[in-house]
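Entry 14: structure prediction run for Prepilin peptidase. Input pasted below.
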Amino acid sequence: MLENIELAASNMPWLFSAFFFVFGACVGSFLNVCIYRIPEGKSIISPPSHCKCGAKIKWHDNIPILSWFILKGRARCCHEPFSFRYPFVETLCAVVFACIWNFFPMAQAFAYMFFFALMVVVSFIDIDCMELPDLLTVGGCVAGVVVSFLVPQIHVKDAMEGAPFLFYAIKSALISVIGIAVSTGFLYWFRLLAEYVFKREAMGEGDVVLIGCIGAFCGWQGAIFAIFGGSLIGSLIMIPIIIWFRIFVRRKKIMETIPYGPWLAIGAVVYLFVQKYVDFYFEGIKAIFF
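Run finished. Output tokens:
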């Protein structure tokens, strides 16, 4: 069956790209629900999507991406504005899902779509609440090990060649566990050093667990890249914004703290697409010293 799907995808790549674009948009719509309900401890399934005024949202007003523009950003029932974040998350997921499908083999693609969806939810919850729920971070670590066992190709590139599936599955799961241990240990000591230097809390414990989740899916190399790559990306984006506000808006303090979780997530997602080069770099370092 999988071979038939791959054959069809190779013959009609545009159709499958369009399908995963739409699929990603639908997943993004569900993730919006998760982002708002999980921090409040509410069910992500029931009740169905509803407006702030309590009215149930009709299906034709709940079309991913399009509905926000059709309604001009205002609810049909009460005409109250609703956030542009809804179509933004849906479009983001649509584009990235389509890219993942075209960039990776099928089994890896599904694993990375799940990982990306998890990163989207934790990032926006961290932005909103400055916290990372254990349900997503600790649960993400467990999910990473399970997914690594079921899809060993995400850690073992030559999986399914020669040896039995169970051999590669166990090897991949062990790499995932090592990724959790190395990444959380590294960031924990990095956190202590930063607190000593800056005399204040540099990051929360949730960030340490989140990097473990990233290590479970991306291995320790991906987690290390996420720490430094995410920090670099965050600096390149936030420093110009801070300078702009201080010069032109004349505000010395923009926000008390900047969440680190979203930058870790961005670094992890970037790693998915450049992992071949990052892993080659780490292999070169390993060859020099060992």
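Notes: The two ends are 44 Å apart (CA to CA). Will compare against the previous run tomorrow.
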